[in-house]
Structures are given as C-alpha cells and as structure tokens.
Amino acid sequence: MPTTTADPRRPSLAAAALALLAVLAWTFAHTHDRLTWALETFPVWVALPLMAATQRRYPLTSLLYFFIFWHCVVLMVGGQYSYARVPAGFWVQDAFGLQRNPYDKLGHFMQGFVPALLAREILRRGGYVQGRRMLAFLVVCVVLAFSATYELIEWAAAVMLGQGADEFLGTQGDPWDTQSDMAFALLGAVAALALFSCLHDRQIARLPAPDRRAGA
Q1: H-type helices in 82-176, by residue range?
Q2: What is the pLDDT of residues 108-167, one digit of tens each?
C-alpha cells in the first residue's frame, strides 16, 4: 500500500472530536456529582488526545472510530447522571419490569465491544497472530483482562474514597454486580467479533500505510 500523507477522513474526525468535547462540557455543566463525572469520563480524557496524537502515523479504521465515538457518549452520559440514575435506563427498567437500572450493563457491553475491535485491529495489522480462531481467542482474553482490571480500579476507588465511590460503583445492591459486569463485557466482545470481523478486515485492508514522518 502506498504511503498517504493526508487522510480524507480528517475533517469528519475533527468534527466528531469537537462534538465529543461539546458533550463532555455539557455533561460536566449538568452533573450532580463532579467526582463521579471525573471518574466515569476519565477514559475519554485519555482516548481523545491519544487518537489525535497518533492519527497521522497510525490511523484507525472508520468502524473503530465510529464505535469509539459512541462508547465515549455512553461514558459521558453515565458520568453525568451516574449509571444508576440515567433516565434511559429507567425507561428500559420500566418497560421490561427489571429490578434495577440496566444502563451500567450497556456501559460494560461497550467496554467489551470497543476494546475487542481495538485489540483485533492492533493484532491483525501488526501480524502478531496467525489464524482467525487464535485471533478471536486472544481478543476475548484481552477484553476479559481489561474488564477485570477495570473492576480492580473500581475496587481501589471504593477503598480510597469510601462513600464517595458509591455512585461510581453503581452496584444498586446487586451482590453479583462485578461478575455480571465482566459477563456483559464478554458478551460485547463476542458480539463485535461475530458481527463485524468481515467488515473490519475489509477496512483494515484499505488503510493507508502509516506515515512515519508525522509527529517525528
């Protein structure tokens, strides 16, 4: 593949980044708990600068950018209300007669879905894994490791912040919340692999060669 110095998607990516910054500012201005907002949206603070810094030399597929965008939105909305209080979650709870607000499970589903695509893209493009089955297996392993790490971070927050971490944990009295969170991450990873592997492969094949001069 020839080296490309200009990604035609840059205007769209810049617009998406500005939209996310606007949503980030909106949720900060309208949150009832700034500490919970900061904890829940921290991945967004990391992801946006990192993608901006690496876009020239290591552009991602449009599929991955698309789902990262919506994952950020899910995180920011969860940070604004806290996951246990998101209005959309209450609508689902009432519609299906659930005992708790399920919005946090959407968050953990996305926590498996998007990292699965990211891990798959890195492993596939780097040629680190041979064979589709082994690739899928390792992607699921990466997602479960990431999910477990996140649960450890939540546990550490609970220990360090005490009652201040209740909104961040959002267990809603469920003693199996940690296990179900990881199960939803696993479900998200499996769904991403089952639904988008073929499309993902086609987009990876069309990616320009990395511009190694960018950011040098």
Answers
A1: 87-96, 103-126, 132-161, 166-169
A2: 999 999 999 999 999 999 999 989 999 999 999 999 999 999 888 877 877 776 655 555
- CA–CA separation, 59 vs 42, rounded Å? 22
Q: Do the beta carbons of residue 107 and residue 83 sit within 8 Å?
A: yes
Cβ neighbors of 87 (< 8 A, separation 6 or more) are: 81
Q: Which two tokens stand for residue 95?
A: 């519609």
Pick the closest to residue 207 from 104, 56, 84, 78 (CA basis): 56
Q: How far is CA 135 from CA 32, 128, 206, in A?
A: 42, 9, 20
Q: What dihedral do alpha carbons 63, 170, 23, 146 form, nearest 10°? A: -30
Tens of pLDDT along 29-49?
A: 999 889 889 988 999 999 999
